[in-house]
Amino acid sequence: MGRKAGPALPAQWPRLPERAPVPGLTGRLRAPAKLNLELKVLGRFPDGSHRIESVLQAVSLADLLMVEKAEPPSIEVTGFEAPTDEANLALRAAAALGQSVRIQLEKRIPPGAGLGGGSSDAAAVLRELAPEREDLAQVAARLGADVPFFLRGGRAIAGGRGEQLEPLPDEDGWYAIAWPGFEVSTGAVYRRFDEVGGGGRNHLLRAALAVEPRLAEFAAGLDEGWVMTGSGSAFFKEASTEEGAMKAAAGLACWTAVARAEPRLSG
Predict the structure, then answer these.
(1) Nearest Cα to 184, choosing from 139, 149, 220, 229?
(2) 3-class DSSP state of 29
(3) Which CATH class is domain 29-168?
(4) 135 catalytically annotated
(5) Which of 62, 104, 116, 152 would be 30's cystine partner, CB 3.0–4.6 Å?
(6) Contact between residue 75 and residue 92 where contact means Cβ atoms under 8 Å apart
(7) What is the mean pLDDT of the chain?
(8) Which listed residue (40, 121, 146, 237) is catalytic?
(9) Alpha carbons 153 and 148: distance in angstroms, whole number
(10) String of DSSP letters for 148-188
(11) What is 174-260's CATH superfamily?
C-alpha cells in the first residue's frame, strides 16, 4: 500500500537471475498480466458457468519464473503471496504435462486482482515444457479459462467461458494500474451478478462493489476513466504515453504500476 507508480517490484525483494545458473534450469520466464478492456456477461451455460465476451490485453507487468525438473515437485515464492502446494497453477500445469518440477516464482502481479497472474504463470510453464505439443491449448483450458489466452497473449476477444479466443491486431498503449491491497472472490462476484446484474465496460463492477464494500470506497476515490479489470479488485486507466499513465497513477494511496501493452507472441 502507498507505493507510487514505477517498477512493479520493491527493490528489497530478491530477483531471479537473467540466465539459468545451473544445467537443467530454464532461463527467466516472463508471465505477463492481463487487463479486461471490456467484459460482458451474456448468460449462463447449462452447467451454471457464465458465458462472457471480453477484450483482453496482455501488459508488461509480469511475474518471473525459473523451472527445472525435480522430484518431488515444489515451488518457492518471493514477492506477493501465492500458494506453495498443488493449488498453485504453475505446479498444476507441469503436472498436467506429466512432469515434476521445482519452480522459483518471483510474484510481481498482485493476487486476486483480476490481472490473471496465476493463469499466466501456468501458461509460461506450459510454453516452456511443451512448446511443440499440439493440444497445448486444450491442456491450458482444463487448467483455467484464462490460461489459453496467455499462451500467446497480445490482444484478443475471449468468448465462451473465456477459452474461445479471436486474436486482434496489436495496439500500442500504456496503462496505469491501481490495486487496493485486498482480494475479491471471483466466485462470489459472479454469484452476486446473478442477483444484481451489470452494465458498462465491465458488467461485473456492480456485483464486485456489492460483494466487497471496501472496493466501493476505493473506486469512489478514483477519478473518471478508471475501469475494473476482471472481477476485481484492480482498476486500470488507459493512456497514450508512459508519462500519461504515470500521471494517472501519481498520488494514489495504494499499490500502483505503469505497464505497456504487449504484442502477441509468435508461434
Answers:
(1) 229
(2) strand
(3) alpha beta
(4) no
(5) 62
(6) no
(7) 92
(8) 146
(9) 9
(10) HHHHHBSEEEEETTTTEEEEE-----EEEEEE-SS---HHH
(11) GHMP kinase, C-terminal domain (3.30.70.890)
The one catalytic residue among 34, 40, 107, 237:
34
Answer yes or no: are the C-beta atoms of 124 and 117 closer than 8 Å. no
Give yes or no: 34 in active site: yes
Give the list of residues 6+ apart from residue 210 with CB closer than 8 angstroms, or none: 192, 196
SS3 for 213?
A: helix
Query: How many CB atoms are closer than 10 A to CB 257?
Result: 28
CATH 3.30.70.890 domain span(s) along the chain: 174-260
Residue 25: what pLDDT? Answer: 57
Q: Which pLDDT tens digit goes with each residue over 88-137?
A: 999 999 999 999 999 999 999 999 999 999 999 999 999 999 999 999 99
Give residue 28's pLDDT: 86
